[in-house]
Known about the structure:
The chain is an alpha+beta fold. It has a domain at 274-369. It is 36% helix and 19% strand. It is built from 16 helices and 15 strands. The protein has helices at residues 4-14, 29-32, 42-48, 83-89, 95-101, 106-111, 116-130, 137-147, 166-175, 207-215, 220-227, 231-236, 263-267, 289-292, 296-302, 343-360; strands spanning 34-35, 65-69, 75-79, 135-136, 153-156, 161-164, 178-181, 188-191, 242-245, 256-259, 274-277, 310-314, 317-327, 330-337, 366-369. Helix 10 (207-215) packs across helix 11. The longest helix has 18 residues, at 343-360.
Amino acid sequence: MIERQQxxxxxxxxxxxxxxxxxxxxxxxxxxxxxxxxxxxALWALELRGVDTAGLGAAAEHQDLVWLWTLRGAPHCYxxxxxxxxxxxxxxxxxxxxxxxxxxxxxxxxxxxIPVLDALDAVAGQMRAIVKEPMVKGExxxxxxEAMPEPYQRxxxxxxxxxxxxxxxRLSAVRAGLELVPDTSPPVLQPMPGFTVAEAYEDRLDxxxxxxxxxxxxxxxxxAEYVDAPVREVKAHWPADAVExxxxxxxxxxxxxxLEADLEALQGAEASGTRLLGPYDLYLQARDRATLVTxxxxxxxxxxxxxxxxxxxxxxxxxxxxxxxxxxxxFNVTVEPxxxxxxxxxxxxxxxxEKLAAFRGVALTGLDYTG
Length: 371
C-alpha cells in the first residue's frame, strides 16, 4: 500500500519542484504542457522548477517556448521544438473523442451530417487562410463567422453576436499552425513559420503516459478528465507498461496505475523545500484532489469555482493557500496556513514571496498571515 504522502513526494520529484536549477530542455512538465492561466501561470511554474525565465528574453520573443490552445481548450506552454509533435499528441483519437471535446458544438454538426473531425479540419483550413500575421481573436472570429456555414456557429448572449462555437475555435487553432502570443488580452494568434502537424510523436509527449508519469498513480477516469476524452478512448490508449498500484485512501474497487519504470521512484520518494504554487500549477491539476488535501472544506478553499488561490507547498504537502495583493506600487502576499508553521518554514515562505515579487517586476511590500 502506497501512502498519500509518498504519492505527494513522488509528484514533487517527478515534476521537479524540488530542484533549484534547470532548463527548458530538461523540464519534464513541458512534455504534458504547462497551463498558462493568470499572472502566475506558465512562466512562474517554470521558475518554480528552476528555469531562469528572465534569461529567456521577453515573453513575446521566446525562441524556446510556444503557447498553444490544447487540452481542455486551455492555453498551455510547450517547447517550441516539440510543437509539431504536440499538435499530433493532443489531437482527438476518434470521431467520438472529438465530439466529446467540443461539447454542445457537436450537435448541430451531427444534425447537418458533418463529421466533427472534418469540421475541425475545415475550421483549421479557414484559419490558415485568414491569419497571415498576428491577429487578435475577435478579428479572426469575425472573419470565420463570414466564412463558415451555420452548423459551425451559435448565438452568444454575452457578446450579443453570432460566432463560432468556442471549443472548435480553440482546438482548430493548433491544427492550423497558430500559436498564442503570450501576455495578450484579448488573445492574439500568429502563424508558426513552416509548421506542419507531425505524423507521429515521442512517447514522452503522449498525454496519457505524461499524466501517469507526472501525476500518477491514476485511474482511467482521472486521466480521461484531464485529457477531456471518453474513458473508453483513454483505456484504448493505455500504456502496455502501466501496472496496478494500491494507494491509501482510494475508493473501494478503484484501480490506480503507474508506469512500471516509475515504481522505484514512487516507493522511495522524498521531498523537501517550499514553493508558492500558482493556482493552475500542474501539481494542483491532478484529478484526485483528495490525495493532496483530505479535508473537504480545504478542498473547496483551494479549488473554488471562481477565484482560485495558490497553494503553499512545504516538503511535498499543501500547508496552506496564498493570494497576491497588488495596489499601485505595493505588492503583498497573504498566506492562510493550514497548520502551525515553524520559524524556518515562515522564512522559506518569505524567500519565495520575494522571488514572486521579483518575477512580477515589483518589490515585496508585505507578507501577511491570516486565520
